[in-house]
Structure formats: C-alpha cells, structure tokens
Amino acid sequence: xxxxxxxxxxxxxxxxxxxxxxxxxxxxGLAAAIELGATLLAAGGSSLDAVTRAVASLEDNPCFNAxxxxxxxxxxxxxxxxxxxxxASLAAGAVCGVGHVKNPVELARxxxxxxxxxxxxxAGAEDFALARGFTLMPRSYFHTPERWRQLERIRxxxxxxxxxxxxxxxxxxxxxxxxxxNLAAATSTGGxxxxxxxxxxxxxxxxxxxxxxxxxxxxxxxxxxxxxIRNAVAHDISARMRYAGQSLAEAVRTxxxxxxxxxxxxxxxxxxxxxxxxSLEFNSEGMFRASQRAGAAAQIAIYR
Length: 304
What we know:
- This protein is an alpha+beta fold.
- The protein has helices at 20-42, 47-59, 104-114, 122-131, 145-155, 163-166, 225-230, 233-244, 248-259; strands at 3-10, 80-86, 92-98, 119-121, 172-177, 183-189, 210-212, 217-223, 267-273, 278-282, 286-293, 299-303.
C-alpha cells in the first residue's frame, strides 16, 4: 500500500476572488504534481523520490509560492527555503535564504545526502549547490507579475493588507509512504510577501514545518511560520502519536484545530502515517491539497 498527499498552501484566495479559470490552473498544478509522485510510488519508487518529484513540480509552477512563483521580499528579491526528511533513517536536509536555485527541494536533499550538515543558508548554500553541479538561475527567472503586484500593494500601504493576508498561496509540500513502508516529507516556500531581515519561517526547520519518522508519521505544514515554529507543529503531531497513542487524525486535528488558533496560528498540515492513513487539516478558509492511495483516484480540493 502506498499513499501520497501534497499541498499548495493554506490561507487560499477567498471564494469571491477565485475565478473558474484561476481555480482550474491551481487544480491542474496539483493534479500534475500528485500524478508524478503516485506514478513513481506505484512503480516501487521510494517515498523520498516521490516527495522530491512532487514538490519540484510545484516549485516549477508559478501559481504557487515556491521556486518560480515565490513572493518578493520588501527590497524586491526572492529568498527561498526548503527541507526534506527521511522517515527510515531520520536523516534530514534543509536550505534557507537562497535566491538562485531553481528547485530548492533538490538542494535540500543534496544537503541531506552529500554533506555532514542538516541546514545550509544563503551564499553558503549556493556555494554548496555549485559544488554539487547545480546550475544557478538569474533572479529574473523567479520574477512573476502577480507576485510583484502583491509586493507593490504592501509597499503602498494598502489598508488591511499584511504579509500574512496577501500571501494567499503559501508553502508547498508533500508526504508519502512507499511500498516498502518508508515515510518521507518535503516542504518548500518563498515565505511572506514583503518579509525583511532575511526572515526564515518554519519550512526549513526540522520538527516545525517538516518532519518524518517511520514510527509515527510524515508531516508537511503551511501557514503562519512563526507560530508553527513556536509550537514545533510537525514534531508535536509525531510525538502525540508515539507517546500519547493518538491516531494520526486525532493528533493532527488537536494541533491544527485546537492548539494553533489559541496563539493566532492560521494554516494547515498534510500528514501520512506508517499504515498509509492520510490526514489533511486546516483552520483557514481553504488549503490547496491533493491525495492519492494505491488503487484509488487522486482527490483534489481547495475549500472545505
């Protein structure tokens, strides 16, 4: 039995702002990513390969706030973060604050597999990318008109707007269980529109936005990163399963629906357990998401 779930961010566009054409673009992007991961898993591929491939597909799609569609910092740059974790070995890799890497999830995996470290940042991460044969992209590759317009709205001080409210489509991620029973999680993001000071969110922090452990589950989170860091959301879900005996659905719901709102934490998670059970939970208006298990069709959704 294999299973895979992906997300394209929580805190989606309000229904009133979602045109049929735009919704179809998001659904097409989610469908393409889930198909890549599920096809690989069905052929006996690893959960690590599946989450890498699915997240890279979302990074390449300018609809999503990761890779090519990343939001801009206040000074008009893109700073990308990503992480990946292997549930079998608890090996993990992460990068943060990179500005020229086409697929940060692939660089995070290279950090995990080809270095003695877990997280590399900024120029050092890009030096490592060059050493591993990655081709760095010009900043123009990441420039999309919609993300630039969002930045201009923030810069203009539009009433009621903030980095949280305008970054409608946030982090992307994937979790998977392969036919060998191994779990993996991967997450990638451009962060918050208008962020400053090289701000880093929960995505590349193992245990906050990304976590995988064959003894419990694999988790990828999306939402208000500062709150997710303070609550160690991804690891908390795993710990509730391991130490408190909660089911995946119970652990996920307790964290996302009961705990996060107490601190003003909006967002959601996707998670899969060692038996292939999948949970997709969010406390925002919606979350771009898809899931698929062996022998079943992919399920794609945006709102509740």
